[in-house]
Amino acid sequence: MTDRVTEVRVKPQELLLSLGGALVLDQHEESLPTRVFLDVLRSLGVSDDATRSVLTRLTERGLLTRQQDGRVVSYGLTDTSRKVLREGRDRVEAAEPFHQTSPDWTLLSFSLPETQRDVRSRLRSRLSWAGFGCLRDGLWVAPGRVDLDRIVAVGAEVEGLQIDGFVASPTPGTDVARFVRRAWDLPALRREHEAFLHRWERPLPRDGDPIALFTLLGAHWVRLLRLDPVLPEQYLGEDWPARRSASAHRAAFAALQPRARAEFTDLVRDARARR
């Protein structure tokens, strides 16, 4: 494995979820031996101990099943993880993931007791994935009309959490560019796109492991999608790099997917044969 594969620093959990969505979901319904996950993440510079730790955490969160047959431990997707990965796949494979067509904005306000820090973190993560930026504490804004059902549903699960959301249009004279700059760090977002382009716009290494590269591509792409709120282009400048990022992802995805799927099937078959 060349250094080109490990240039992007991604958390082991993000790599495992990427692997699940890209090569396991709808391809391998049965549980996979632990050695499959160890082999893939080891080629991406993740230690076996770290991979086992993440597998355990994902199992505890209800995102993986765990089965043991003698000394062989296997992991598989749960109904919950399949639902989450399928919901994310629509945006992952969208033709124009950064093109905003709506002139409206979605506003959301929530209040939460300070004791519920774990819920606050989970809610903020869900808001970021949905494209929201924070205008001020407890007040979030997202471009376009956002389906709030899954976000508001969190409120029904947690005592003391209140969420209110509505769709609005800026009034005449509103400096939309100003609140865009306040809610989102545009220079940092540009750097994220440029980092993605630096890694994936170049020709892929001929000696690279297609499974590792495809897994890394997916994790890096999901991170970029999570960070980019899909803002209207008129507030971003003519040289905004999002369209190039989408083009680079399409090209790398098309080049890697067939080989990655074929070699992953071989890897799974070999791992099961050694059980």
TrEMBL record:
Transcriptional repressor PaaX-like central Cas2-like domain: from which residue to which, for each copy? 104-146
Q: Which GO terms describe its biological process?
A: DNA-templated transcription
Task: Return the Pfam families for the record.
Answer: PaaX, PaaX_C, PaaX_M
Domain named Transcriptional repressor PaaX-like C-terminal is located at 184-262
Record domain Transcriptional repressor PaaX-like N-terminal: where: 17-80
- What residue ranges carry the coiled-coil annotation? none
- For this entry, the protein name equals Phenylacetic acid degradation operon negative regulatory protein
Instruction: Specify the species.
Output: Modestobacter versicolor
